[in-house]
Amino acid sequence: MISGLGHFLGRLARALFAIPVVLYFLLADLVMWAIAPVLDLLAKLAFWHRVELAIAALPAYGALIVLAVPIVLLEPPKAVALWWMATGKFWPGLVMLLAAKAFEFAVILRLHAIATPKLLSIPWYAWLHHAVLTLRGKLYAALMTVPGVLAALRYARQTVRALRARFALIWRRRPPSL
After folding, report:
1. Lowest mean pLDDT across 38-52, 54-68, 123-137
2. 111 in the same domain as 74
3. pLDDT digit string (tens) for 61-72?
4. Residues 139 and 18 sit within 8 Å (Cβ to Cβ)
5. What DSSP line would sit under the chain, residue for residue?
6. How many domains is the chain built from?
């Protein structure tokens, strides 16, 4: 009887761990997909190209430090946003939290894409990178078997496409002086 309970508790713990991890990965992928046009515009800037070249030229641990800088810089605004949400300023706090998280995703994932070849030369980082990607793949595969998930993802993609189209129209109508 105890082994059955232990098996059940182990499965429950894995499920409780998997839910926030899957939501985090989904949010990261959705944000990256939504802001891809902005990142494409940034990549075309000469300044950003020089930054990318400088990061690519760093040694492995230097690239790791560069990757940590946005995380450290964006933690205080996220803490303030959570404080606002807890003290009755929910909507401004939520907007600030989402904006900081989206910016963090964008910057960190772009920096990670630039620094990955160097970072993978660090043995523990290479192992961790492979483990996270493997976990992500398994969780996505399991998630796709849950009824309604594909429909929810389709709806989210349609919403983001509509928002992109609306912002593209606004961007094109902007007066030349701005």
Report:
1. 38-52
2. yes
3. 999 999 888 888
4. yes
5. -HHHHHHHHHHHHHHHHHHHHHHHHHHHHHHHHHHHHHHHHHHTSHHHHHHHHHHHTS-HHHHHHHHHHHHHHHHHHHHHHHHHHHTT-HHHHHHHHHHHHHHHHHHHHHHHHHHHHHHTTSHHHHHHHHHHHHHHHHHHHHHTTSTTHHHHHHHHHHHHHHHHHHHHHHHHHS-TT-
6. 2
Is the domain of 113 the same as that of 53?
Answer: yes
- How far is the C-alpha of 126 from the C-alpha of 26, rounded, in Å? 22
How distant is the alpha carbon of residue 73 from its chain centre?
Answer: 16
Query: Do both 90 and 136 map to the same domain?
Result: no
In a shared domain, residues 21 and 49 = no
Residue 1 inside a domain? The answer is: no
Q: And the tokens for 18? A: 């998997």
Q: What is the mean pLDDT of residues 136-151?
A: 77
How far does Cα 106 stand from its chain's mean position?
A: 7
Q: Report d(CA 76, CA 67) in Å as an integer.
A: 17
Six-digit token pair at 178? 């701005």
Q: Which domain holds residue 137?
A: 12-43+122-172
What value does the mean pLDDT take over residues 142-160? 77
- Nearest Cα to Cα of residue 60 among 127, 122, 145, 130: 122
What the block records as the tokens of 38 is 């902005």
